[in-house]
Amino acid sequence: MEVLINIKYIVNALVFSLLGIIVLIFAFYVFDKMTPGNLWKEIVEEKNIALAITAGAMALAIAQIIASAIHGG
Questions:
Q1: CB 40 within 8 A of CB 55
Q2: Spatial separation of the C-alpha atoms in residues 38 and 8, rounded to whole Å
């Protein structure tokens, strides 16, 4: 059985992955600016579990939207 790897698919996957990561970082930055106070200080120093869960859920939701948009379905 012959394995044929097309370089076009690898390049597309890398480009879309990089684009998705950039959009996710931008969305998280916007989320950080929309919340009052310093997000990381609240999570790390103040041990605000509710805010950590909210930030994690936001990151997962945005990542799912980006993956769906890239996948096309």
A1: no
A2: 42
- Residue 24 makes CB contacts below 8 A (sequence gap 6+) with 59, 62, 63, 66
- What is the identity of the amino acid at 11? V
Within 10 angstroms of residue 51's Cβ, the number of other Cβ atoms is: 16
Residue 39: CB atoms within 10 A of its CB come to: 20
Burial pattern 20-30, b for ≥16 Cβ within 10 A else e, equals: beebbeebbee
The pLDDT tens digits for 12-56 are 878 888 888 898 889 888 888 888 888 888 889 999 999 899 889
